[in-house]
Amino acid sequence: xxxxxxxxxISGAENADACASADVVVLTVPFxxxxxxxxxxxxxxxxxxxxVDTTVPLAASVGGRPTRVLGVWQGSAAQQAAELAPEGxxxxxxFHNVSSELLNGDSPIDCDVIVCSDDKxxxxxxxxxxxxxxxxxxxxxxxxxNARIVEQITALLIGLNIRHKGHSGxxxxxxPAAAYEK
Length: 182
Ligand SMILES: NC(=O)c1ccc[n+]([C@@H]2O[C@H](COP(=O)([O-])OP(=O)(O)OC[C@H]3O[C@@H](n4cnc5c(N)ncnc54)[C@H](OP(=O)(O)O)[C@@H]3O)[C@@H](O)[C@H]2O)c1
Fold this sequence. Notes:
By secondary structure, this protein is an alpha/beta fold. The protein has helices at 15-21, 34-41, 77-84, 100-103, 120-130, 147-164; strands spanning 24-27, 50-53, 90-93, 112-117, 137-140.
């Protein structure tokens, strides 16, 4: 269990119930289940909720390589989510570059989280949430369309992990300290 788990209450529920009862819904299914899951959950969403999409459309979803991403018609998995989510639900793309291996550990996470969304208020809330993870710095990555770039970085990280046998992440340098605080 990761460091956060010690200070967090965790309970389980069916997807529809979990979705209906949450202000922030985090979608963490493989890309092959992305559209179907969102279609199933559509009646459970309500206006004002934030949908955090972490999905990387890896080619592995269709039997291809985990070091390649699929072309998504909408531009990215996050933009596909925005198309499928009901009106009034703010889609925020985040956490794509954070390895689950590191999240499950007890050490601070050596990775920045780039947050992309067309809803500035929702994006700010998710940056605040990301900063609760020890070691994580969260950055405003601009509009949701930039999720395409952030998603693709993960395919590169997976390739690096395979080649060098590690759990890589990203750090963005050269920005003023305020960029990591707002
Ligand atoms: N793993 C990482 O380090 C990492 C990092 C950044 C982003 N991501 C993204 O996060 C998402 C989840 O990654 P993961 O490694 O956690 O994947 P995973 O372990 O393969 O799947 C996560 C959960 O998705 C559900 N699921 C799997 N296939 C499904 C299907 N066909 N229909 C409905 N639900 C299904 C399963 O829930 P149940 O067990 O309840 O059935 C499973 O536990 C992916 O889109 C990935 O690109 C992962």
